[in-house]
Write a structure and sequence with these properties.
Strand content: over 45%
Radius of gyration: 13 Å
Structural class: mainly beta
Largest sheet: 7 strands, mixed
Helix content: under 10%
């Protein structure tokens, strides 16, 4: 079993920064691709970023490129999402996910989600 728990969500002013963490328990993250998603009220869940097993390959959604960066520390079983230059439209519940596959088409494990609120 793989259990994912997000942390680091908060209320922040536009232009500010946050770093979300996703800690895995039960199994090491070394063999898992990791992704971040978000869902705003009234909208569907959307892809934010993904990182490969070793961290050597990443991809980010167009609307966060240059502002957000995904990373991982396999020794700590933790994935991160560094968010800079935050905008009010970034307000959403953010979820981390894990998959045994690469490329990733479906994620087998999901965290509970954490609120990020950006004020104007």
């Amino acid at each position: 079993q793989v259990h994912l728990v997000e942390s680091g969500g908060d209320l922040v002013q536009a232009g500010g920064s946050l770093r979300l963490s996703c800690v895995a328990s039960g199994r090491t993250l070394t063999s898992y691709s990791m992704g971040w998603f978000r869902q705003a009220p009234g909208k569907k869940r959307e892809f934010v970023a993904v990182i490969s097993y070793s961290g050597g390959t990443t991809d980010h959604a167009d609307f966060v490129k240059g502002r957000f960066s995904i990373s991982r520390d396999n020794g700590r079983n933790t994935a991160y999402l560094q968010m800079n230059s935050l905008k009010p439209e970034d307000t959403a519940v953010y979820y981390c996910a894990a998959s045994k596959n690469w490329p990733v088409y479906e994620y087998e494990y999901w965290g509970q989600g954490i609120q990020v609120t950006v004020s104007s």
